[in-house]
Amino acid sequence: MSETGRIRILLVDDQPLLRMGFRLIMEGEDDLCIVGEASDGAEAVRQVREVNPDVVLMDVRMPVLDGIEATRAITSSGACARVIILTTFDLDEYAFAGLQAGASAFLLKDVAPAELISAVRVVASGDAVVAPRITRRLLETYVRDGGRAAGAAEEPSLPAAGAPAVRDPLLEDLTPRETEVLEAMAEALSNAEIARKFFLSEATVKTHVRRILTKLHLRDRVQAVVYAYETGLVVPSNADY
Question: Which of 6, 88, 152, 218 could form an S-S bond across to 97 if both were Cys, CB 3.0 to 4.6 Å?
Fold first, then answer.
């Protein structure tokens, strides 16, 4: 955040009217500040370096460089900016690819203004926005479909149901309890539900979650769920979502 405590936001969309709409919504809040706009992914990557935003609202379908590749470039660069992918449908294959690329959240483009503002604040604080159950449904859908989403052609695919997965050596750094907590996170349990399941306090669960993210070099809870599927720690069920 800026020295004034305001959340710095970069708007990325190839449609000027949509950027204007988001700007009008954000500028009505005292703690939010628009620091730049971009009309394509390549420009977004440049502006992240130049204006150092806290949050990037990222469209997907754009010229020059799409939002998925732009997200991957931003998150892999070490920038502090967290990306919120804007999609049309909650099971959009681009939302899945965006999470794989390192986005901290995805929202529908017709999101209510209050929900958008809340999401920006939550992501800026370092937390995740996407409801774990939606994330799980999204991941299971694409794992069952072969594990490859649009925009992820060059990325390793998720393991298909029943396929062996290579265990990440980093998992060995987790304690047995941390492994259990990670599995519970991937099962879409909240901190409160995890606490009840393992007879722990919520404060203890939060500590476990923080240590898991640190040890596995993950940005947030959403990335932890993605990681659990990518490494085969959790395999998709046959349930329909």
Answer: 152
